[in-house]
Design brief:
The complex is a heterodimer of chains A (109) and B (230). Chain A is built from 5 helices and no strands. By secondary structure, chain A is mostly helical. Classes of the chains: A mainly alpha (109), B alpha+beta (230).
Chain lengths: 109, 230
């Protein structure tokens, strides 16, 4: 068994030598890949929220972060948080369109 | 049975007793309040008025927070048969989508660590209860969303005690913010009962839901001052 392991290790070393040599300055041993947890905690995923709207949908910052916030109830409710909330009137305009995640009910008649 | 609340802003004088009672009852993390007071003025000088509008979770019929939570896959938000929208802290992944979509700003994200209600003064009131002895809605966790539960721990007790007729009348069976109001600006009860006080007041005072344009069908109704935001 020991012999077999030694042979395999030697074979790996030989096979990897050119690759390592070509990459000589950065020839650090690769860290083992950790298995992804089944359900990761994604606390305060504001970056993801921005990624979805900026990179995937192609929106500009000002499309959501408008300077014409009229919803005083939401503004004041968030007053203790420090950050200006995104006006949900902007959200609802898109999130009622077909093929968009529907957070809000259909327009009431 | 469907629980609803009526808030009469014409009676509210902005004393914030409702906020204080909620803080004491639910010992929410400072900075993540379950109940906030929004103040603003309406009218033009000299005919101006101050509006006091307390905002808590509206326990919507079609909650945007639940739609977002389900879409993310966490499924931490539920709406029970009594109309109460609750967050399961064990299932919450802390993504903040519920807070991002709620038109009312109700869900509040807890920080990296739970804070005491009165920082530096030690645990107070319900905070002194051992974690396991608390109602599930009070088993606070860092990095999750919290919000008003309509004091579900009290409503649940009323249901299990067979005292649903005392909801809105007795402190132990009624959300803490409601009976504490010194001007009786808040009324809580069963909307399915047309003879309940809250049903009569909603109809009689022509109470409205806020931000109906989002069509989430809130279960908190307001009697608004003329010119007040809706």
């Amino acid at each position: 068994m020991r012999t077999l392991i030694a042979v395999l290790a030697a074979a790996c070393a030989v096979a990897l030598t050119p690759a390592l040599a070509a990459d000589a300055p950065a020839a650090k041993p690769a860290a083992p890949k950790a298995a992804a947890p089944a359900k990761a905690k994604v606390t305060f995923d504001l970056d993801k929220m921005h990624d979805v709207h900026e990179k995937k949908v192609g929106m500009e910052c000002a499309d959501c972060h408008t300077k014409t916030h009229t919803d005083i109830l939401l503004m004041k409710a968030y007053a203790n948080k420090g950050d200006e909330p995104v006006d949900r009137n902007v959200c609802v305009a898109c999130h009622r369109q077909p093929r968009k995640p529907a957070w809000y009910g259909p327009v009431s008649k | 049975m469907k629980f609803v609340r009526l808030i009469d802003t014409k009676r509210c004088m902005g004393c914030r007793a409702c906020l204080a009672s909620c803080a004491a009852e639910n010992h929410f993390t400072p900075g993540s309040p379950w109940n906030v007071m929004v103040e603003y003025e309406v009218g033009a000088y000299p005919a101006v008025k101050k509006v006091y509008n307390t905002m808590n979770c509206m326990h919507c019929e079609k909650p945007a927070c639940k739609a977002a939570c389900d879409a993310v896959g966490a499924k931490a938000i539920s709406k029970n048969k009594y109309g109460v929208v609750l967050i399961d802290y064990d299932k919450c992944i802390g993504c903040g989508y519920c807070a991002a979509v709620c038109p009312y700003g109700a869900p509040q994200m807890n920080g990296d660590a739970l804070e005491e209600l009165y920082p530096g003064k030690g645990k107070q009131g319900a905070e002194t209860l051992a974690y396991a002895e608390r109602h599930p809605t009070h088993r606070k966790k860092a990095k999750v969303a919290e919000k008003c539960t309509f004091c579900w721990h009290k409503l649940e007790k009323a249901i299990s005690d067979g005292k649903t007729d005392r909801i809105g009348k007795e402190q132990q069976y009624t959300p803490s913010c409601d009976l504490i109001c010194p001007t009786q600006a808040r009324v809580f009860g069963d909307a399915d009962d047309p003879n309940s006080e809250v049903s009569k007041l909603i109809a009689g005072k022509k109470a409205v839901q806020l931000k109906k344009r989002f069509n989430t069908a809130p279960q908190v109704f307001y009697v608004l001052e003329e010119g007040a935001k809706s």
